[in-house]
Specification:
The complex is a heterodimer of chains A (about 325) and B (about 150).
Chain A (H helix, E strand, L loop, with lengths): L1 H18 L4 E5 L3 E5 L11 E6 L5 E2 L3 E4 L2 E8 L9 E6 L4 E6 L5 E2 L4 E7 L5 E6 L9 E9 L5 E5 L3 E4 L8 E9 L16 E3 L3 H9 L2 H22 L1 H7 L1 H15 L1 H6 L59 H8 L1
Parallel strand pairs in A: 1-9
Antiparallel strand pairs in A: 1-2, 2-6, 3-4, 3-7, 5-6, 7-8, 10-11, 11-14, 12-13, 12-15, 15-16
Helix pairs in contact in A: 4-5
Chain B lengths: L1 H38 L7 E3 L10 H16 L4 H10 L2 H8 L20 E3 H28 L1
Antiparallel strand pairs in B: 1-2
Helix pairs in contact in B: 1-3, 1-4, 1-5
The chains are: A alpha+beta (about 325), B mainly alpha (about 150).
Chain lengths: ~325, ~150
């Protein structure tokens, strides 16, 4: 029982030690595979690394990564299509072997895009362009940008192939943009995005220039506006009505002259000795519609109890025009005489 | 006469580029249909003969045939997604991409394993390997098209 427990203890401790050498492999920029085994700390001894890609033979590493003179990783150059093949790794210190299989297709991290530039296009939009350095075809690379205006929060959006547009930017705002990429779904999507590219800024320098370039126009606009107002005032001042308006007498005669004519009766009504003449009320005979047809052929309706004193009309005055009301029998008899 | 020859040559070149563009789109269509089928798998415990991941370049067409016939054998074409995928895998453009553009005629294809000799894997692994094969071929096809346009 004692020996079995000892054996189990040794097995567990040994297993734990091997398991602590966890090998992580990543395809970097579709150029090479980078495998490391220092995730849980720098190993105490140097390990020899072997790898087998697809149906090839096992090959020893020829480019180790070291830390404090201890091997902690290995870089292996590959073709971009090799990530679809099986990849196996072996770590050994002579007495211990650790073998592991890796799925490389999605374990890809591209380098960040480069040469990020910004142009103010002829369409007044802001265009951003960049390059990517991986051997992947353009249609296999998916890009994402993040931008912010005036140091506000970042906005993250998908981008086109090597370009992005901000519509009609404000000349007084500052725009900052970064871009990152990864292999897209149709070419074996990578689960890692690249790091963000170096930022590009637009507007911080131009905002000052824009202010200076606009300032000569503002006083000009103010002067033109002032001159226009003065000219309008002068025209009005020289106008006859405006001169009359200045004096109080002219004011009343200008605005109330016509109005007074129409309301002369109203004016008279407020005189203390005002005496209104009685308005005769008459009964009108019915006139058939055929007799009162107007010149345009339309017929008018006829009422029988209509009184109208709005028009001043002397029944004895035969020269006055007939009212627009139905004709009274008395007036017809007088007109025919 | 020279003008006619030049025009015919231009039309021929444009048709070749157009054909490779169509192949490119066809493979993208295959991947799209495969994705739909994977998300609607009727029975994930089914075991099927599955070509390995490390297929030689000149055996890609043989592998495609194996995938297609295994799909027909185990899933049939009664389902909407199965039918679409089968038709796309059987399309002339798909076959030509896997065959002609991917393997020159000088290399022998007699060393390619038969379909029934491949070990069996579950349906999930089957479709993952088919997806990887199509993505690999598509990547090479894009390279091929760039080289063709360049030279």
């Amino acid at each position: 029982l004692f020996f079995s427990f000892s054996f189990l203890y040794l097995l567990c401790s040994t297993s734990g030690y091997i398991l602590s050498l966890y090998v992580d492999c990543l395809v970097v920029n579709l150029d090479y595979i980078s495998c490391t085994w220092n995730k849980t700390g720098t190993p105490e001894v140097n390990y020899t690394f072997y790898s087998k890609l697809g149906n090839d033979q096992w090959k020893m590493c020829n480019h180790y990564l070291t830390e404090n003179n201890v091997n902690i990783g290995c870089n292996k150059e590959i073709d971009s299509r090799d990530r679809f093949k099986t990849f196996r790794t072996q770590l050994t210190n002579g007495s211990e072997w650790f073998e592991k299989g890796h799925e490389l297709k999605k374990q890809v991290k591209l380098n960040p895009p480069t040469n990020l530039t910004v142009l103010n296009g002829s369409d007044f939009n802001l265009w951003f362009y960049w390059n990517h350095t991986s051997p992947a075809p353009l249609h296999c690379v998916e890009s994402e940008v993040r931008f912010r205006t005036n140091n506000n929060n970042w906005d993250v959006v998908s981008a086109g192939i090597q370009k992005y547009c901000i519509n009609l930017p404000s000349s007084s705002s500052r725009y900052e943009l970064q871009v990152r990429n990864r292999v897209d779904d149709a070419c074996g999507e990578s689960i890692f995005w690249s790091d963000w590219s170096e930022p590009v800024v637009w507007g911080s320098n131009n905002s000052t220039y824009a202010k200076n370039s606009m300032s000569p126009w503002m006083p000009v606009m103010y002067v033109v506006g002032a001159i226009t107002v003065i000219l309008l005032a002068m025209i009005l001042l020289h106008h006859e009505r405006w001169q009359l308006f200045v004096t109080s007498e002219g004011f009343f005669s200008l605005f109330f002259k016509d109005w007074f004519q129409f309301s002369k009766g109203l004016k008279d009504n407020f005189k203390p000795d005002y005496n209104e003449r009685a308005c005769p009320v008459r009964e009108y005979n019915y006139v058939s519609q055929s007799d009162v047809v107007s010149s345009d052929g339309s017929t008018c309706s006829v009422t029988t109890d209509q009184t109208d004193c709005s028009i001043e009309h002397d029944p004895e005055d035969l020269s006055a025009p007939f009212p627009s009301n139905p004709v009274s029998s008395e007036e017809v008899q007088k007109a025919s005489v | 006469m020279k003008l006619i020859v030049f025009c015919l040559f231009t039309i021929y070149c444009c048709s070749l580029v157009k054909a490779s563009t169509m192949e490119h789109k066809k493979l993208k269509e295959v991947l799209r249909e495969l994705k739909m089928l994977k998300s609607n798998l009727p029975n994930t415990e089914l075991m099927m003969n599955t070509p390995p991941k490390d297929i030689e370049d000149c055996c890609c067409l043989t592998a495609l045939t194996c995938f297609r016939e295994t799909l027909l054998e185990h899933f049939g074409i009664s389902g909407k997604y199965q039918k679409k995928l089968y038709k796309s895998l059987n399309h002339t453009l798909t076959v030509s991409t896997f065959g002609l553009n991917f393997c020159n005629t000088e290399t022998s294809t007699t060393n390619c394993s038969t379909c029934h000799s491949h070990p069996k894997e579950n349906a999930s692994e089957f479709f993952n390997r088919l997806e990887s094969l199509v993505q690999r071929v598509r990547l090479f096809q894009i390279y091929f098209r760039k080289l063709y346009i360049k030279y």
